[in-house]
Amino acid sequence: MDVVCGLVLTGVALALSWLLTPAVGRVGLRVGLADPPGPRRVRAHPVPTTGGIVIFLVFGLALLLGHHFCPGFPSELVGRMGVLLIGAALIAFLGAVDDRTDLRPWVKLMAQSVIAASVVAGGFSVSEMRFLLGPTVHMGWFGYPLAFVWFLVFMNAMNLIDGLDGLAGGIAGLASLTLVVVALANGNMLLFFTAAALLGATGGFLVHNFRRGSVYLGDAGSTGLGFLLAGIAIVGSDNDVASSAILAAGACMAVPVFDIFTTVVRRMKAGRSIMAADHSHVHHRLIGFGLSPKGAVLVLWGITVFFAGQVLSAVIPSGAIFAVLGLGAGAAVGYVLLAQHRKNTHTSTSNASDEILYLLGMRDDSDRGRVDGDIELRSLIRSQIRREASYRRVHRRHRREGGIAAESAERVAVGRGPGAEIKMD
C-alpha cells in the first residue's frame, strides 16, 4: 500500500509539474526571470528560467500531500524535510536573484556556504558510512564538514552541467529514479517518498525542457536540484547501514563532478580564475567532437545510467540486472562515440588519442579547431551542423563513386564496357 501511494504521489507530482511549468514560465517572462540572448546562449529569444521554482514548489506540495494522505508516510520525515525545504527555498531565492542580477561568483559561493552550514547544523550530517562490504565507520564530528562539502559539491556541479536542454534535469531525474530503486530494495520509506516526489516534479519539467527548450532550470533550479539531491541522500542514509543512498547519489553525479574537476584543472592550468565562464565543459566538448546538442545530452545520460547500474548491482540484492542495463548503456555510448569518430575521419585529420584527451578535458586543441570560451555556443553548434553536412556530402559522393565503379564493372563483365573481353563461341 505504501509503495502504491508513493507511486501515485510520483504521478501527481509529474502532472502538476507538467501543467504548472508553462504557466509559471509566462509569469517569469513578465517579471524578468528569463535568460536573454547572448554569446553564451543557444536561443536567440528570451527563455524563462522558472523551471527550478516549479520543481521546488511541486516537490514540497507532493510531500505535503503524502503526509496527509499516505498512511505509511514516515512521521520522522516531517521535521527533517522542513529544515531541508527551508534551505532549498533559500537556495532557490539566491539562484533567482542571480538569474535576475548576475551575482559575482564569490558572493554566490559565500551565500551557498552559509545556507549549507545552517542546514548541516540543523541535523543534516553523515553520522556513519559503510562502503559496500567494508566495516561501518562512525564519522563523529567529521560528518559535519563532510556533509557541508557534499552540499556545496552537489549544488555547484549541477549548476555547471546545466548548459543544454534536458541535461541537468535529466541527470537529476535519473538520480531520483536510482534512489527510488535503492529505497524499494531496502524498504527505506524515508528515502522512497522524498525521491519519488522529486522524480515526479523533475519529470514534468523535462517534458517542456528537453523536447522544446521552452523553459530553463535557471540557477534557482540547478543549484536547488543539487541541494535537494544532496539532502535526500543524507536523509536516506540515516537508517541504511550500507550507505546505499550516498553511494547511489554519488554515482549519478559522476558526470557533473568530473566536469567540476576538469574545469578547475583547465582554468588553473591556463592561469584563469576558476570562477571564469567558458565553453569547454564536457557537454560543449561533445558538441565540438561532432554530436548534436541532444546527442550530447543522451550520451551523458547514458554515462550516468552506466555508473548508476554498476553501483545498484553492488548495493541491492539481486542487482545483476542493473549491472547489465548499465553495461548496455555504456556500450551504446561507446558505439555513438565510435561512429562519430569515423565521421570525423571523413572530414578532418582527427586522431583517436587526441579526441579522447579532448573529450576528457585534458586538451583544448583538436584537429577540428579550437573550442574554448572565445567561441559562442551558437557558433559551436553551427560548426557542428556544417561538419555534419560536410560528412553527408562526402558520404554521398563516395556512394555515388562506388555506384559508378560497380556499374562499370558490371558492364565489363557482360561485354558492354570499353575494357570488356570478347567471348568467342
The residue fraction in helices comes out at: over 70%
Strand portion: under 5%
Strand arrangement within the widest β-sheet reads 1-2
Catalogue the unreliable spans.
366-375, 409-425
Task: Tell the overall outline.
Answer: globular
With helices defined by DSSP (H or I, 4 residues minimum), what is the helix count?
15
What is the H/E order? Answer: HEEHHHEEHHHHHHHHHHH
Number of strands: 4
Counted up, domains total: 2
Class derived from helix and strand content = mainly alpha
Mean pLDDT: 80
For the largest beta-sheet, the strand count, sense and barrel status come to: 2 strands, antiparallel
Radius of gyration: 25 Å
Termini separation comes to 87 Å
What does this structure look like?
- With 425 residues, the chain is an all-alpha fold.
- It folds into two domains: 2-252, no CATH class; 262-406, no CATH class.
- It contains 15 helices and four strands.
- The chain has helices at 2-31, 51-69, 76-101, 105-121, 143-161, 167-186, 189-212, 218-237, 244-252, 254-269, 282-289, 293-315, 320-347, 352-359, 377-414; strands at 34-35, 47-48, 128-129, 137-138.
- The strands form two sheets. The protein has a two-stranded antiparallel sheet.
- Strand 3 (128-129) and strand 4 form a beta hairpin.
- Helix 5 (143-161) packs across helix 10 and helix 6 runs antiparallel to helix 7.
- It is globular, with a radius of gyration of 25 Å.
Which labels suit this protein?
425 residues; mainly alpha; 2 domains; two-stranded antiparallel ribbon; 2% strand; globular; disordered C terminus
